[in-house]
Specification:
Layout lengths: L1 H13 L13 H9 L7 E5 L6 H7 L4 E6 L2 H11 L6 E5 L11 E7 L8 H14 E10 L6 E2 L2 E2 L5 H7 L4 E12 L5 E11 L1
Parallel strand pairs: 1-2, 1-4, 2-3, 4-5
Antiparallel strand pairs: 5-9, 6-7, 8-9
Amino acid sequence: MENRKSHWENIYSTKKANEVSWTQEVPETSLEFIRGFNCPKEATIIDIGGGDSKLVDNLLEEGYKNITVLDISEKSIECAKKRLGEKSKNVTWIISDINDFNPKEKYTIWHDRAAFHFLTTPEEIENYIGKARQAAGNYLVIGTFSETGPKKCSGIEIKQYSGEQLENQLAKGFNKIKCINEDHVTPFNTKQNFTFCSFKRS
């Protein structure tokens, strides 16, 4: 959807990392979930909507060797590549709206912090879950705004989820491992409550 793409290209072209609410210096919750799977460092990991997130930096630092980052915004990926320098050559980068993504392989771990909650229609949600069933080989981690979190992000309405609601959405194909809630402290010192859930392929 071109309007959606234009929105995110504009955000990443006009704002620095400390000017957007989702910035995390160290995405500790995501890292803890991924570490908890005890996968080998050769495991394939895809970060959905990863863009300029520093998850990839931290995964590389911890020795993971097969990382893919997907984002709708070419500019966000440019920012990440510039930050990583030579290390960026060790990452597979995919510029695509998740709605249009056509997975070519299975990934040991499918990770998504705050992309899924932008999908608000039944068709988009089912499309996403179908892709996850197709491409998530072993594990899946999803983080969304919780029922007490924001109702919008970057001016766009999102769909809030409880742990139970995420479990129900993914019941066909995945078994829940655990769900937690956490407050993300933004660069503006405000709090956003997230629901994070991990799943194992059934």
